[in-house]
Design a protein that fits this description.
heterodimer, A: 123 residues, alpha/beta, five-stranded parallel sheet, 5 helices, B: 184 residues, alpha+beta, five-stranded mixed sheet, four-stranded mixed sheet, chemotaxis (chain B), EC 3.5.1.44 (chain B), Cytotoxic_necrot_fac-like_cat (chain B), Probable chemoreceptor glutamine deamidase CheD (chain B), Chemorcpt_Glu_NH3ase_CheD (chain B)
Chain lengths: 123, 184
């Protein structure tokens, strides 16, 4: 069984998912991916995770909704959640923080900074 | 340069889209304009809400250690996402978006085919995101001027003198201005 940290990335952009898969996979993480908040919740119902990385603007269930649902559940309520977004407004950061996000990363992401942040919040 | 035949009596509001910018409008008298060398401009249009947007990007050189022929796609994906998010904010739906691509010329012989790499990235992005590409005018060795009326989805693309382009060269992405991490 792998000891690699398991990361769930949630983003509706296939291109962004490909960049994240490459950046995280190349650094030894076990990466799972979902294309919106509802798909992420479906995956989380059946799997364990060490860190969740989520976009904000997504169809069906956005990043804010996903964070609220994870925090109000039992299974993953203590897992770190990093927001990865093109947005950088203080109002949206405050909303994410209030919902229970662990941190905020502004796109375009830098792979080294992203990996460092994941390792930092995972331990 | 030939002037447009006016659609109505009110004058157009012309907005120039510079490299690194993305703009959206539903204004019936708005026209986005840009001049492209090796850069690529994407025009998105949602016919149901009559909303359009344009971006203008040049991919950065890859970070050290990457293959020399590759370009760093992070910035291109970012600027595409900024434009799509802006479209969605004003009522567009991603599944209704239609795209045009322009630019991607290789204007200097003997230099890396930066224009081709930018064009290839843009086509690949649209394929991955399942956004139909209705029209493209990419490649070649000539600069282009693109004029896009976002509320109507109308585009005009013409070749222009290469001297009209202040050709920019790709620069490495600056780590300090991207990917900032803020832990709460």
């Amino acid at each position: 069984m792998s000891n690699a940290l398991r990361i769930l990335t949630v983003d509706d952009s296939a291109s962004m998912r490909a960049l994240l898969l490459h950046a995280l996979g190349a650094n030894g993480f076990d990466v799972a991916q979902a294309d919106d908040g509802l798909a992420a919740l479906d995956w989380l119902a059946l799997n364990d995770v060490d860190v969740i990385i989520t976009d904000i603007n997504m169809p069906r269930l956005d990043g804010f909704g996903l964070i609220e649902q994870v925090r109000s559940g039992r299974r993953h309520c203590d897992r770190p959640i990093l927001v990865l977004s093109t947005e950088s407004s203080d109002e949206k950061k405050a909303r994410a923080r209030a919902a229970g996000a662990t941190g905020w990363i502004v796109k375009p992401f830098d792979a080294e900074k992203l990996v460092a942040a994941v390792r930092r919040v995972a331990h | 340069m030939t002037a447009h035949t006016p659609i109505a009596s009110k004058p157009l509001t012309r907005i120039t889209i510079l490299q690194g910018q993305a703009r959206v409008s539903a204004g019936p008298r708005v026209e986005f304009s840009t001049v492209l060398g090796s850069c690529v401009a994407t025009c998105f249009y949602d016919p149901e809400v009559e909303l359009g947007g344009m971006n203008h990007f040049l991919l950065a050189e890859p970070p050290q250690g990457h293959a020399p022929a590759a370009v760093d796609e992070h910035y291109g994906v970012y600027l595409m996402e900024v434009l799509i998010n802006e479209m969605l904010t004003y009522g567009a739906a991603k599944h209704r978006l239609r795209a045009h691509l322009y630019g991607g010329a290789n204007m200097r012989a003997g230099m890396a085919q930066i224009g081709t790499m930018n064009a290839d990235f843009a086509r690949r992005f649209l394929q991955q995101e399942k956004i139909p590409l209705l029209r493209e005018d990419l490649g070649g060795t000539s600069a282009r001027r693109v004029e896009f009326r976002p509320a109507h989805g109308q585009v005009r693309c013409r070749t222009v003198a290469n001297t009209l382009v202040s050709e920019t060269t790709p620069t490495p992405r600056k780590p300090a201005i991207s990917g900032d991490v803020e832990l709460f």
